Amino acid sequence: MGEAKRRQQEGGPAPRKRSSKPVIFAGLVIVAAAVVGALYYLTLPPTPDSDSLPEVSEDTPAFPAQLDRYGISVGPENAEVVVREFADYQCPACASFAEASQKLKSQYVEPGKVRFVFFDLPLRQHTHAVPAAMAARCAGDQDQYWAMHDRLFAEQTRWGGSDNPGEHFSGYADELGLDTRRFDRCMASELHLEAIEDSRQVAIQLKIASTPTVLVNNIPLNSPHWGQLSAVVERELKEEP
After folding, report:
1. For the CA atoms of 63, 64, 70, 73, what is the dihedral angle to 10 degrees?
2. Whole-angstrom Cα distance, residue 238 to residue 241?
3. In angstroms, rounded to a whole number, what is the distance separating the alpha carbons of residues 131 and 138?
4. Listed residue (230, 238, 223, 203) closest to 80, CA to CA
5. If DSSP codes are grouped into helix, strand and coil, which group holds residue 198?
6. How buried is residue 135: exposed, middle or buried, by Cβ count under 10 Å (0-12/13-18/19+)?
């Protein structure tokens, strides 16, 4: 019997069931797209006019600018917007914020729009924080403060867990082209220890105890990261005459 006749007599092959896999896959794609879209909008940086940005009341006193001499400053002295950071070189959250401070310097400080002041606030539980602050200031004696500042945060996990962080600091000084003998003498003599303690006392006076604490003029950021920092800076720049 031919194949065609047999199919007619037997009713032909049973119809194939339609697979539900394409439908399930399409549904998963739609859900994934919705999740990605939601995350995108949730993680968009705030705009300068966003209601979510931190504010202070009009009668909040200005930051006592005379205290800036205890920090390390970069940018124009007469800048209308000043960003101040109180930080500990061994603090992981401070290392995370370091990228934002670098962007601040390149996008706002270098063009002359903003001044940035960094205050040392070494926490008692971080045994290498004071030597690290000393390394930055000793590098500053050779005009490489910010280069050492950035390097210390970038390499925090290396020297932070070392039994001899000084070896790392001396190595960074050499890589930055510093006079390492002068740098090592500065470190050994603890030349800048008093200045670091003076900076820490500023934080105590202002009742600042956590790091990083970041203020734009007199406005403390409640979530120190680039999105909030840049938005508040932009808002303050627009409000200045």
Report:
1. 50
2. 8
3. 10
4. 238
5. helix
6. buried
Kindly tell me the burial class for residue 107, based on how many C-beta atoms sit within 10 Å of its own C-beta (0-12, 13-18, 19 or more): middle
Domains along the sequence of the chain with CATH: 65-239 (3.40.30.10)
Q: What is this structure's pTM?
A: 0.80
Asked if 131 and 187 count as a contact pair (C-beta separation under 8 A), the reply is: yes
Distance CA(219)–CA(213), nearest Å, equals 10
Question: Are 115 and 73 spatial neighbours (Cβ–Cβ below 8 Å)?
Answer: yes
Judged by DSSP in three states, 216 sits in: strand
Amino acid at 177: G
Quick: pLDDT tens for 171-228. 999 999 999 999 999 999 999 999 999 999 999 999 999 999 999 999 999 999 999 9
27 burial class (0-12, 13-18, 19+ CB within 10 angstroms)? exposed
Which of the two residues, 198 and 48, has the higher pLDDT score? Answer: 198
**Distance between CA atoms of 45 and 231, rounded to whole angstroms?**
8
Q: Which two tokens stand for residue 71?
A: 């920090």
Token pair recorded at residue 136: 């930055």
Nearest to 238 by CA among 42, 50, 45: 50
9 — pLDDT class (breaks 50, 70, 90): low
Residue 130 · residue 169 · CB < 8 Å: no
